[in-house]
Amino acid sequence: MDDVTIAQASAADLDAVAPLFDAYRSFFAGNDDFAQSRSFLHERLCAADSVVFFARSDALALGFIQLYPLWSSWYCRRIWFLSDLYVREASRKHGIGRRLVQRAVDHAVESGSSSVMVELPHREPHLRQFYADLGFHQDAVFDLARRNLIQPNA
Fold it and tell me: Which domains, ranges and CATH numbers included, belong to the chain?
């Protein structure tokens, strides 16, 4: 899969990304409602209250990652919440998920954020190692996984 590119999604990419978002919701939450998934994603993209990156090969969307902005009052900096990561089944085991996470981390660095955090579903224990391999670790203060991008006192 050498021809895979990662791009930031806009409302113009909705039809490419919405089926992946719906498949993600169906897999993780049991919510199988394409119209609702498409509408929700459309609202996020149009309002710019989330950032979505997606992997594609030619015209086919292979996976996506969605980040939501949060703020840390402790550090007076933005935190990105990595809410959604999904790669279509036929495209798994090719490093696409890793590339999407790395793009999300790069975005966090570019935006001056203090960290990226992710919730790990208990029913998906393999994700703990997946994210650990990408630099995330169990937070010492809160019960969540976080990848610090700067030292807390920096």
Answer: 4-148 (3.40.630.30)
